[in-house]
Amino acid sequence: MRADKLREVTDGCDGTWVAHPGLVEIDKSVFDQHMPAPNQLHRKREDVAVGARELLDFGPAAPITESGLRNNISVGIQYIGAWLAGNGCVPVYNLISTASSPATNTSSFSLYPLTTG
Fold first, then answer.
1. Residue 24 CA to its chain's centroid (Å)
2. Which domain does 39 fall in, by range?
3. CA–CA distances in Å: residue 27 to residues 13, 58, 78
4. Whole-structure pTM value
5. 39 and 66 share a domain?
6. % of the chain exceeding 70 in pLDDT
């Protein structure tokens, strides 16, 4: 987790998403160490060039597979089950799932026709 937060702050992110209140201090310590100012507006990413074409290129990097779709269905069902049981942030397959997981996983279904012949 520290490595992920370090990547975020060194990539120029001004803040981060925290999965659980108990993780706030860990995440905050990484950002405090590497971002002493309130924001990183002064930090320009000259190595990144984004134009209209890149913004419209939102397809998946690799083909969406049946096993990937099945995994997304499983994650969504497991999360919804945990949510109905009163847990809003749960580990599923060693990844943190939250309320956005079912919606994010559903997006793979809409992209699936674009990646198949």
1. 17
2. 1-48
3. 13, 29, 26
4. 0.54
5. no
6. 94
